[in-house]
Write a structure and sequence with these properties.
The complex is a heterodimer of chains A (905) and B (365).
Chain A: E1 2-9, E2 18-21, E3 27-31, H1 38-50, H2 58-61, E4 73-80, E5 83-90, E6 96-103, E7 106-112, H3 113-123, H4 141-145, E8 146-147, H5 159-168, H6 176-190, H7 207-400, H8 405-428, E9 430-434, E10 440-446, E11 451-455, E12 461-465, E13 468-473, E14 477-482, H9 488-506, H10 514-542, H11 547-567, H12 570-573, H13 578-641, H14 648-678, H15 683-720, H16 723-785, E15 791-794, E16 800-804, E17 812-813, H17 819-840, E18 846-850, H18 858-871, E19 876-881, E20 893-897
Parallel strand pairs in A: 3-19, 3-20, 8-18, 18-19
Antiparallel strand pairs in A: 1-2, 1-4, 4-5, 5-6, 6-7, 9-12, 10-11, 10-13, 13-14, 15-16, 16-17
Helix pairs in contact in A: 5-16, 6-16, 7-10, 7-11, 7-13, 7-14, 7-15, 7-16, 8-9, 8-10, 16-17, 16-18
Chain B: E1 2-6, H1 22-43, E2 47-50, H2 62-73, E3 79-81, H3 94-101, E4 106-108, E5 115-117, E6 120-124, E7 148-154, E8 156-157, E9 169-170, H4 174-178, E10 182-186, E11 192-195, E12 201-205, E13 221-226, E14 235-240, E15 245-253, H5 258-267, E16 275-285, H6 290-303, E17 306-316, H7 322-325, H8 331-343, H9 347-364
Parallel strand pairs in B: 1-2, 2-3, 3-4, 6-7, 7-10, 8-9, 10-12, 15-16, 16-17
Antiparallel strand pairs in B: 1-13, 5-6, 11-12, 13-14
The chains are: A alpha+beta (905), B alpha/beta (365).
Chain lengths: 905, 365
């Protein structure tokens, strides 16, 4: 398709109508300053050819000129496939679309609205966007051939464009038939699925999806119906149970009622029989008792009389035995009392022994105190002596004036140094010895000793000095002896200093010499040893105590001793013999204890005998008393029994007669009793219980009846809902819907499968296009930029992804290139596609380039222009630019000044 | 004595397996009562025995109960019914409503005690629960045969033939034990007749008068019974009253043209409006015959009372690729080839291929 004329009205900055004529053969350079509306014209072309007139929304609203309520209108005249067409497109309030074909000198209407738009899109292999402005992905060939501003880079091309490219390259391509079939497959597919492969939902959902919602609702209803039916069945079951319960209650009630009646009859009969039996029994018992009473009386009399005899015999025995036992008891009591008295006497002896024990204790204490007093006195004496010794030794030590080891060592050291210094000094001094033959007078001017000296003949005079010894010798003259100046003075100084130090150290010790100091030191050591020894003795003697404590203890003991001696004055003269006292006391105590044991044993024996004897006497006395009472009682009973005035013989007769009558009554009673027993136990309690049961059964029956009838009402309500029929209808509907859904779903899956297979095959085909297009783009790039970038690598959608530079072993991403080279790579790919789709395909199409190659240098731009010129015969080129001068070298260029078109607002 | 023996009317039964024809299937069960009525009038029967399961469930509507009652009231002769296991005599069930709504001419036998019927004595065995291990005929006494004695019961004869879930097991020798001239049974939906030791068929299931589903081949009948005298062998005549046909057609397609012949056969089927068809196709589908599938689908939907077409076992014919080569070269043809290869083991691929074929054929048209 090539565009011949474009007319725009009310489209963005083109408020007024503007028309642009494009040259079909030459390169169209549409130029103008920024904001002159160049790009707007290209967009107007795209909107007219690619969008639906029904598009709405904000994006379409923005097509209006600013601040105006105009409806955009575009008219495009174009050629395609050797025919000339005119498309009129209006948006918003002026929405319409009309396609005309130029025939016989005029434009004739060809199609309107969607048909017109579909026909135009088909020429460009474009896709319809339902209600919005078509995005570039839907532009078909225009996506490859038209390059709006800032859209030089191509995104992945759709399969129709790829198919067209593939067709050109001789690969499996997309002809009209294939395109139609694919469209139909796509349409069938889109009836069920979204373009992204998800099941369609919402109002566009396919039937099976919508039916699923209905099915879900029906299943919910079915569950409810099932629950209702189950409730109905449960209600039926419960009704059966309630009916059975009611029937059972009725049965129990009937049973209870019958039982009550039976028991009432039985009770009447039983009572009658019972009364009769009681009367007979009373008669029988009376007669029997009378007979028994009489016989019993006779028997009792006999027994009593016999018993009376026995009692009297026994009483007599006791009367014979008891006095002897009482006398023996008396004797034993006397013996026991005697033993007790003896034991009490022993108690006094024990008290006396206790006081002797106390005396012994005191004697022991007295002896102990005395010993301790002696010991303490001894200790204190020794301690005092040792303390004196210690004090004397310490005083001697103090007055000794002996240096300690350290001081002595220092003194020795200094003395040694002093000696050394003296020797050195002596060595450093000049020594002059005079031995005059005659007595002379020498004056020592310098030297030691100084002054005039008389020297006898033959005597020796030594003079020392340093550094000069000067002598005036009488009769001789002056003698000067000089030596080394240094040394002696120093040594003297040192010696002086040393002497001072030594004097300082020795000062505390007086004028004692070193040997004396040594001797004192020895003495000191000896004294110190003695002092230490004495201290140890003292410590051992005191054993941790102090003399004051010992003294205090001694005082306490003396007090105690005084107290005891006050109690026992004789002890002061003769202390008690503790051992003797102790042994005597022990012996007496042992004897006393033996005696006590002996008396105790005898007392226990006697006591036991006395107790036993006492019990015997008591027993005999009590027995006699009881026997006497019994005798009195027997006599009384005999008197009573004989009081009825009958003799024994009369009584016996009377008893026999009563016995016979009793037997008669007894027989009658037994018969009546058998009759009563045949009737069973007293049915009155049973009757009471049964009446209560009847009452309970009545209540139960009434309650069961109420429950049953109430539940029948519930059941009737449920059955009125016809739950089974409702369930049936729902199941059937669900079955039908399920079948429909399954059928539709299978079809949806089949269409998806078909769609996906075709898409997969397209992808494979797409990948086969990449290499040829990449090679062509690489050649074009080499012509533009040189061969240092060597080759371009394209993705499956033919968009460039990287380059393989000649000097590099690996690919370089486009981002690694300069902006200019990146621009040129994209341009090369676009140009390659343009060549394929126009020159190689044999179909002239519009190739539009809006402000591309803005950062390409003039040199490379020149090569680009050459390529454009080469393409010009095969494609209609429209270049939008702000720099028309850059294209001035094109030999066949048609310049269109956008500014000269009607003034944009 | 001449009477009609029927059972298992199953009024109100569900028929989800009949799809959209479910209601018509249910209605047919009402219609058959009219035909039974006509038959009784035509054959001058003395009475009718309905041996249980008159209703499918106690939850049927009162309208339906009334409708059946009205139809039964229109019979010229007495109709004796007993509750079956689907409609046992329970409180709040259909019989409570039937008792109050129905005409007294319809004899609802709820007790196990003898009832005088024209020409003899009937020993009804109504059921009181859905499941039981008790023989409902056990109460029938053996009495001297002063008159014709017949029994009516509902349950499973204790025979190996009646496998599966048994309920209310009936002694197969009940007729002999109790000295019955005939025992009319319900529960089994197909006609079954059993001989006693004396060689006479004295025990029978009448089956359901209108088949309920596919596979019930011996259904759709009632039995006309003639007994001349006590102890005589009953004469049993089986009469069709059912109108619906449940037809299952299984066809293995191996050659082109089979489907067209099948279509012709179905078109020629008599009374399609009363026929429910389940058509299962297996074998090969030739591309040129894919339109036959649609035609079959339409034929089943439009002419028959109900039709279900199952083509899941049809696979595209392996050597039928000519149409694929006529597809445009490129991804479409390649996709068709890939689907063709996968179709043998992948039903979705097979159906996808058919869709492509339809689209291609539609475009060609």
């Amino acid at each position: 398709m090539i565009v011949l004329r474009l007319e725009v009205f009310g489209f963005r900055c083109w408020r007024d109508s503007v028309a642009v004529e494009f040259h079909p053969e030459q390169i169209n350079i549409l130029h103008g300053p920024n904001g002159s509306g160049k790009s707007t014209l290209l967009w107007a072309l795209a909107r007219a050819l690619l969008d639906t007139h029904r598009a709405g929304g904000r994006a379409v609203e923005e097509l209006r000129p600013w601040g105006a309520g105009l409806a955009p209108t575009i008219v495009v005249e174009f050629e395609h496939g050797g025919r000339r067409y005119r498309l009129r497109k209006g948006f918003l309030e002026n929405r319409h679309a009309g396609l005309e074909e130029y025939k016989d000198g005029r434009f004739l209407a060809l199609a309107e609205y969607e048909k017109a738009e579909d026909a135009v899109r088909e020429m460009l292999l474009a896709e319809r966007a339902p209600r919005e402005l078509a995005a570039p992905e839907r532009w078909g060939l225009a996506r490859a051939l038209w390059c709006p501003q800032d859209h030089l880079a191509i995104d992945a091309l759709d399969e129709r464009v790829l198919g067209a490219v593939g067709q050109v390259l001789g690969q499996t391509g997309l002809d009209e038939y294939a395109s139609r079939l694919k469209r139909q497959v796509e349409e069938a597919y889109l009836a069920y699925w979204t373009p992204t492969g998800r099941a369609k939902g919402g109002k566009d959902a396919p039937k099976w999806v919508q039916s699923k919602k209905i099915l879900a609702g029906r299943r919910q209803d079915l569950r409810q119906a099932q629950m209702t039916l189950e409730e109905f069945h449960r209600a039926q079951k419960k009704a059966r149970e309630l009916e059975a319960a009611r029937a059972a209650a009725e049965q129990r009630l009937d049973h209870a009622r019958r039982r009550v009646e039976e028991l009432e009859e039985k009770l009447a009969a039983w009572r009658q029989a019972s009364a009769q039996a009681k009367a007979l029994e009373a008669q029988w018992q009376a007669r029997r008792q009378e007979a028994a009473g009489l016989l019993n009386r006779v028997e009792q009399l006999n027994k009593l009389r016999e018993r009376l005899g026995q009692l009297e015999a026994r009483i007599r025995e006791i009367d014979a035995e008891l006095p002897a036992k009482q006398a023996a008891r008396q004797k034993l009591e006397t013996a026991v009392a005697s033993l007790r008295r003896e034991l009490e006497a022993l108690q006094a002896d024990e008290e006396r022994l206790a006081s002797r024990d106390m005396l012994l204790t005191k004697a022991e204490n007295y002896a102990r105190y005395r010993a301790e007093r002696e010991e303490l006195e001894r200790l204190l004496g020794c301690a005092a002596e040792l303390s004196n010794r210690l004090r004397e030794a310490q005083e001697t030590l103090q007055t000794l004036g002996a240096p300690d080891d350290s001081t002595l060592t220092q003194i020795e050291k200094l003395a040694a140094e002093q000696t050394q210094l003296e020797i050195r000094l002596e060595g450093a001094l000049l020594h002059v010895e005079l031995q005059p033959r005659e007595s002379r007078r020498v004056e020592v001017i310098r030297g030691d000793p100084p002054g005039p000296l008389e020297v006898a003949a033959g005597a020796s005079l030594r003079i020392r000095g340093s550094p000069v010894v000067e002598l005036d010798l009488e009769g001789f003259g002056r003698l000067v002896v000089s030596g080394p100046a240094e040394g002696a003075a120093e040594l003297k100084a040192k010696l002086g200093e040393l002497a001072d130090r030594l004097a300082s150290l020795k000062a505390p010790y007086g004028a004692a010499g070193l040997d004396e100091l040594r001797r004192r030191r020895e003495q000191r050591l000896h004294l110190e040893a003695g002092i230490a020894h004495t201290r140890r003795e003292l410590d051992a003697l005191l054993a941790g105590r102090t003399p004051d404590a010992l003294g205090e203890r001694l005082n306490q003991i003396r007090v105690e001793l005084q107290r005891l001696e006050a109690l026992y004055p004789e002890w002061g003269e003769a202390p008690p013999d503790v051992l003797q006292l102790r042994s005597a006391l022990a012996a007496d105590r042992a004897a006393l204890q033996d005696r006590r044991r002996s008396l105790g044993t005898e007392l226990d024996t006697r006591q036991a005998e006395l107790t036993e004897l006492g019990q015997d006497c008591a027993r005999l006395a009590a027995e006699r008393e009881a026997l006497a009472a019994e005798r009195r009682q027997a006599e009384t009973q005999i008197k009573e029994l004989e009081s009825n005035g009958l003799s024994d013989a009369d009584r016996a007769d009377r008893a026999r007669a009563a016995a016979v009558e009793a037997i008669g009554f007894e027989e009658r009673y037994r018969r009546e009793l058998a009759t009563l027993q045949a009737l069973g136990p007293d049915p009155a309690p049973d009757l009471d219980r049964t009446r209560l049961d009847r009452q309970a059964a009545e209540q139960e029956f009434q309650s069961a009846g109420q429950d049953y009838h109430h539940h029948l009402g519930v059941l009737a309500n449920l059955s009125a809902q016809a739950p089974y029929e409702t369930l049936v209808h729902l199941e059937e509907e669900i079955e039908r819907l399920s079948a429909e859904i399954e059928s539709d779903r299978r079809r949806a899956e089949a269409l998806k499968r078909l769609h996906d297979e075709i898409a997969a095959c397209d992808a494979l085909a797409g990948r086969a296009l990449v290499e040829p297009v990449a090679q062509r783009a690489s050649k074009l790039l080499a012509r533009i930029a040189g061969d240092h970038l060597r080759s371009v690598r394209l993705g499956d959608g033919l968009s460039p992804e990287s380059v393989l530079p000649r000097d590099a072993g690996t690919e370089a991403a486009l981002e690694a290139l300069s902006a200019g080279e990146r621009e040129q790579v994209h341009f090369a790919v676009r140009l390659a596609l343009a060549e394929l789709l126009t020159r190689d395909a044999g179909e002239r199409h519009l190739v539009a380039l809006d402000d591309v190659l803005v950062v390409t240098d003039d040199g490379r731009l020149g090569r680009v222009l050459e390529l454009l010129e080469e393409l010009r015969p095969y494609a209609q080129l429209v270049i939008l630019t702000c720099h028309p001068d850059r294209y001035g070298s094109l030999p066949r260029a048609h310049f269109i000044d956008a500014a000269s078109l009607s003034r944009p607002r | 004595m001449r009477f009609l023996h029927t059972a298992d009317w199953q009024i109100g039964m569900k028929a989800a397996h009949a799809g959209a024809a479910a209601q018509r299937v249910r209605d047919a069960r009402i219609d058959v009562i009219r035909r039974i009525q006509a038959l009784t009038r035509e054959e001058c029967v003395d009475f009718v025995l309905v041996a249980g399961d008159t209703f499918e469930d106690h939850g049927v509507s009162s309208r339906l109960i009334g409708q059946v009652g009205d139809l039964l009231a229109g019979f010229d002769c007495p109709v004796y019914l007993i509750p079956g296991n689907h409609d046992p005599l329970v409180a709040g069930g259909v019989w409570d409503r039937a008792s109050t709504q129905w005409s007294r001419r319809v004899r609802l036998l709820f007790e196990r005690r003898p009832v005088e019927v024209p020409g003899g004595i009937l020993y009804p065995c109504p059921l009181y629960e859905r499941w039981s291990d008790d023989d409902p005929t056990a109460w029938i006494p053996c009495e001297p045969a002063r008159t014709i004695r017949i029994g009516m019961a509902h349950g499973s004869l204790a025979l190996p033939l009646f496998q599966g879930e048994r309920h209310h097991p009936i002694n197969p020798e009940t007729a002999e034990r109790a000295g019955l001239d005939y025992l009319a049974l319900g529960d089994w939906h197909s006609v079954q007749r059993f001989r006693s030791r004396d060689g006479a068929e004295r025990t029978a299931y009448s089956g359901t008068p209108e088949p309920c589903s596919f596979g019930e081949d011996a259904s759709g009948f009632v039995l006309l019974i003639d007994i001349d005298a006590p102890g005589a062998a009953p004469h049993i005549e089986q009469r069709r009253v059912g109108r619906l046909q449940w037809k299952t057609v299984r066809e293995e397609v191996n050659l082109p043209g089979q489907l067209a012949r099948l279509i012709a056969d179905l078109r020629a089927h008599p009374e399609p409006e009363g026929t429910l068809v389940r058509l299962e196709l297996g074998g090969l589908l030739f591309a040129a015959e894919s339109a036959c599938i649609d035609e079959l689908d339409q034929l089943l939907a439009s002419r028959f009372l109900y039709g279900r077409l199952d083509v899941s076992r049809l696979v595209p014919a392996p050597d039928d690729d000519a149409w694929i080569e006529n597809l445009p070269a490129g991804s479409i043809r390649e996709a068709a080839r890939r689907l063709r290869e996968a179709a043998a083991g992948d039903a979705t691929a097979g159906q996808a291929l058919l869709e492509l074929y339809r689209i291609a054929q539609g475009d060609a048209a």
